[in-house]
Fold each of these.
Amino acid sequence: MPDKMHIKLNVNGKDEEFLAEPRELLIYTLRERLNITGPHIGCETSHCGACTVTIDGKSVKSCTMFAAQASGKSVTTIEGIGGPDDLHPLQEAFKEHHGLQCGYCTPGMITRATKLLEENPNPTEEDIRFGMAGNICRCTGYQNIVKSIQAAAAEMNAAAASSSEAVGNKTVEAAE
Amino acid sequence: MKDEVENREDRVANLKGMGCSRKRVEDARFTQGKGNYVDDIKLDGMLFGDFVRSPYAHARIKSVDTAAALEVPGVLAVLTAADLEPLGLHWMPTLAGDKQMVLADGKVLFQGQEVAFVVAEDRYAAADGIELVEVEYEELPVIVDPFEALQSDVVLREDLVGEDGSLPDGAHGPRKHHNHIFTWEAGDKEPTEEVIANAEVVADESMYYHRTHPCPLETCGCVASMDKVNGKLTLWGTFQAPHAIRTVVSLISGIEEHNIRVISPDIGGGFGNKVGAYPGYVCSVVASIVTGKPVKWIEDRMDNLMTTAFARDYHMTGKISATKEGKITALQCHVTADHGGFDACADPTKFPAGFMNICTGSYDIPTAYLEVDGVYTNKAPGGVSYRCSFRVTEAVYFIERMIEVLAIELDMDAAELRRINFIKKEQFPYTAALGWEYDSGDYHTAWDKALTTVDYEGLRAEQAQRVEDFKAGKTRKLMGIGLSFFTEIVGAGPVKNCDILGLGMFDSCEIRIHPTGSAIARLGTISQGQGHATTFAQILASEIGLPADSITIEEGDTDTAPYGLGTYGSRSTPVAGAATAMAGRKIRAKAQMIAAYLLEVHDNDVEFDVDRFVVKGAPEKFKTMKEIAFAAYNQAIPGIEPGLEAVSYYDPPNMTYPFGAYVCVMDIDVDTGVPEIRRFYALDDCGTRINPMIIEGQVHGGLTEALAVALGQEIAYDDMGNVKTGTLMDFFLPTAWEVPNYETDFTVTPSPHHPIGAKGVGESPHVGGVPCFSNAVQDAFRPFGNRHTNMPHDHWRIWRTANELGLHD
């Protein structure tokens, strides 16, 4: 058996440090070692996206990445996106627009959608369908997922507009 | 009371009862990654078990050597059939009256069959151990074709042949051949044959409904924990029927049922995959008993696709006869059903081919005959109802294809052919030629609404023009108009004719009202995404007048929930939903007596009004349900027991028969074989609608699973019995990119025998959707001579159809 590797990760803002076999997959690290069970396992071949996390700003399928490959990087899972007191607009929108049924794909779906909206804050329906094609849902037929993401985008853009307006006003006040 | 200032409309809205699109209470935890699925369960000292699986589809096992595996650090035990035999657990009963090997007992019958169970400290150690279990196989001839199986000298199941070569009867009667399982008939053979022989017009067709798989995103799994101190076994798992699993575990293990607690936590989709009992469950229980520690078993995706619960695999041959004007006179169907190595179909005991005898569909067909032959092959066992009631998808596909073929034979429009043969509204309740009594329907209204909405005449004109353009070389795309009109049979079912392993298929609900006017209700079903915690609370809110938001719904724990047969076959709303309403009415009946006492009037002088009982003729005198609940716990009322609880076990008098009208418009590129779905219109009639938002979501999802099955999803085998579609690389699950937007619509024809008139909806879109997508593909090629091609209509097969019709010349 090869020597264990010294791995350092930042997961949802918290530093983690441990020894692991080189073959340990990141999804295993998250779920079994760190008890972060939001990301799920659906296929082990990168097709379904239930295990999607964000690593250094990119969407990654954590079932096909070794923990060692993520060493030194920052990992965000659904648990780092929003909780009971600070729900992300996407979490709100999925609830509001029936964007989920069994819930198994949902953490990966929302995690991916946060990146999609960062990359493209005004996506068309086609952009959303293409940008979410790495995440499979067996229950919803996607129609309400698309609707949820569109609603969250509108909400986030409105919030951004009003906060930049607020900033703008402050600037004016300061200038006066 | 504040309540007095509220008007009636506000009080109704406050309940969030039946008919409103209440947001789901489940979603808070799921959107935050706080669902609790079986693989999320962690117990102290928990071990992980996984299988050594056969690479061969048919082989004798000469030896199994576990010594090297047991040397692997972290491996604690390796179970083989020899270890299970003394316990009598090397075989287990199936739901279909057959038996199935838990671990290979001398031979294997399909690729991926469970040979040994390695128990280790974690998944990696288990995988290392699996690598080192040495199994010596002797290959045997492989049969993957059921027609060949019925001719072959090769005996697949030696255990079902007498030593003198005799064939003992199977669970469903006499067997014709050593690889034959059963023959099942419905209807009248000779009269049907006679009508067809003398008919003005006869259409016949053979079709293969391919093998596929429900493939929920979460695979099957369990955690078994035997507590040797108190003798209790707890089993968490992906069970669509937790109570039935408890009874099965008790029967096969000998552990008394009160010492077994089965818990279905959150389930990541089921679609029929999680109804059956699998070797992994048995091995986990045994491993926990052997090691004294909790043992987890979770399928990987390949295990899931290769071994647990395929669906369909029906070879269907039909004849349909009609007058020259298109009035159908008779229908005949024969099915050769490929059940794989063991007959593990999940059907009610008396229905080895499920409800295939709903295959007369939505039409008034006076005479019919159905015969089904079940056959063993070297494929995985299963035969589950993938998002449908038992074999109803097959039945509806069959009749909706036969109608299309008959339309070709008659040179008639397929929509009109359907219209003139529909069972008429005034004929309900309608007894079909194959035995079922349809409860209610208004097919003509639904059909007319559908055809008008999509401008059917306009579509046909456009299609005719497209054919002209194609022939003139102006386009390479053809247009298909897919039609389907389906009638489902769901809500199994009446105990008089429906049981599984002798357990009647009733369901149950138990309600406890708390003193301050909130409540908990527990049911015998289990949600897998359907939103039971949301919708069952809505039924109760309307029945008992307490807000849905004040009612907790709990399912899936056999120690607390009343006995029920679980969730599949769209039975939750028809059966458990009915139990919920009936239990609610018991609560209301007692509340009425309490209210009358408090208001100092006779019981009959108060009446229920939304959330309260009012004195008849004096609406200002009332007691709210909240007040009544408190009184039930704090007042000594003569002749009435304290408390406010009720339980109902509901045995439905009949099935329910949801129906719908679907239209799909598709453009097909004849050079690439790529179909593009331009429009899909789905009208569903599921009777009384409990939550329109959830119904619409179910329709979207069911249609998408129908799209998958019709257009590409398949479990394919090669001649050696190798599964060619064992990963999501090969097994088609549509992504957002391939799926269209759907238009949903409805009519409401309540079930006359259901307490709230609801019929169930989760499976309708799948049942109606598959023939609709398939018919669209076939319709595009009809003007060029196509009569029938088999699913799945993937790009290659569509291209091939175009090629065979000479469209590439």
Amino acid sequence: MVKVILSRLARLVATILAVTFITFIMTALLPGDPINAILPPDAPRDPEIVAQIREEFGLDDPVLVRYVNWLGNAARLDLGESYVNRGQSVMGEIKNRIPVTAQLAAMAIVFAVVISVPMGVVGAYRQGRAIDQATSAASQIALSVPNFITGIFLIWLFAVKLRWFPASNWNRWDKGIWANFRTAVLPASALALSQMAIFSRLVRSDMIATLQENYILSARAKGLNDRFILLRHALRPSSLSLVTIIGINFGALLGGTVVIETLFALPGLGFRLINAINSRDILMVQGITVFVATVYVVINTLVDVLYAFVDPRIRKG
Amino acid sequence: MPTAGADATRLTKSQQTEPLLVVEGLKTHFATPNGLVKAVDGVSLSVARGKTLGVVGESGSGKTVLSRSIMRLNTAGNVITHGRVSYDGEDLLQESPKEMREIWGVEMAMVFQDPMTSLNPVVRVGRQMTEHIRHHLKVSKSEAAETAIELLRSVRIPEPEARFSNYPHEMSGGMRQRVCIAIALACGPKMLFADEPTTALDVTVQHQILNLLEQQQKDRFMTMIMVTHDLGVVAGRTDEIAVMYAGKIAEKAPTGELFADMRHPYTESLLRSIPKINQPKHTRLAAISGRPPDLINPPSGCAFSPRCPYAQPKCFEQTPPLTAAPAPGHQYACWFPVGSPEGNQAWETNMAAGRLQTLAAAGELNATEDIPATIGGG
């Protein structure tokens, strides 16, 4: 097990290096001179000042040198400063905003799992029957509706009509858990809907395959009831794909809640990233992208380790 | 031990003499897009208490479906079952799913063919052994664990306490089959089905598992149905044998009688296909020519006729009924039974006509699947 974890860690480091390098090169290739982001649009382009700024930000160094410098700083958790908002550290900005995005992503995943697992299990158990047809159709619809439409609908129903939850804004944890939860419910639900559709289809199809297994027949021949067989014998072997996709989608949500954060005016990471891209704030874009990518890779490594808990046969690896 | 099997002394006289299981006209058909698969097509049999019935046949003869139909374990949505399965006086085909769950494990249990896949890979052996003990016998977790360890010991698994917390993949195939047997025995069933219990195991282990099953069956006074494709497996271990072909019983007799005086050409072919230890090396295996029949459109007349060395024109037209042989309990479904004057005549006729199946059976031709299903003399 220790050996497995060590080899995973080595792979993790290699992946992060590759990810940071690619991100760095890609952002360096973006058209437009960073100077235009650093200097206000209406400021005079005095060649001397420009040269001084280029010197200060190391913009004239070859891209590889810049990467190595940046990486050295990044290793000390210093991702540089925003070009646009001088003095604002990229790392500080991430620390400030990641709780919002991470909470949204986590809540969306939890909502989705809580609803999709029973849906998938029932769908598989009653394969082809009315309840299966209904849940399959529901997840098909959920999958085809873009999440901002869901968001708008949720705002209309629960914020405007029923007035249960606020339509926008965000309360941090320090304002109380309930206050925080209230502001998170609608955006998290909007994100959860399509996840739920994906998860329930996965659970359903894996479960249908599992229910064909001989050990399910053996369990039936022991006189156990169906609910026990479904939950205690069939669910765990049917959840490998689910665990995988949860890992992948959680990472994707961290970088992909932009639309929902914008719609609900939430101070999250995605919102900030779009902002930074629009204002050519390259160091900020790099910092956030690298951060999200790293978290993504770390989560997927954790998922690999999690497999071993789901399926004991993998433990010996 | 609380989970001991049925006690012979507790039963009244009439209960002891009455068969525990009576199957009458059982039909199990599967509706498929290609037509109705008649996997079991009118089987009647009975098994007396404490006795062992061997059900023998090739793959696809319907023997596994038969045992699952009796236990009502066919789960497919397209299954159609007719007939009567009377177990201890109750018609199992009329029981509700809930009532069946009270019968499974407690009254009847099954040991499956492949121990590599019939244990749940992600659940410890201990829980797989105790969950139904706790469910059926309403005992505490620790009592169930004690019973389970005792069972592991009785199926001769070394270090049962340590094995109790193993996962199935940490055990060998033979050991897993012992676990499966222990699981089947756990709630003291009166009736045990063993569906090809040794097919997936090494030859050396097969013998041990068969001995174990036989011994447990005797110790617990269980009634057993042993399904196998290997006449050798059931030869010394059953009281009665039913030979199945194309979903029907071809021949049925007490074990000794069957081997001494077999009547059905299919039984004879099955026996001939077992290699003998005293044969010279590299003797060609006496396979049965042709393939098992199509169960959607079975051959008209006797289903075995296209492959039968004895087949005569009558066999291709009329289905032979189960007929009683002189010996008690011996029945066969054949127009030209082995060893009878008609049978001998049929064989001679076919040999003279050069019927390929007959030549192959006589060892003068290599039996292959390619011998066409010929009608008439060849």
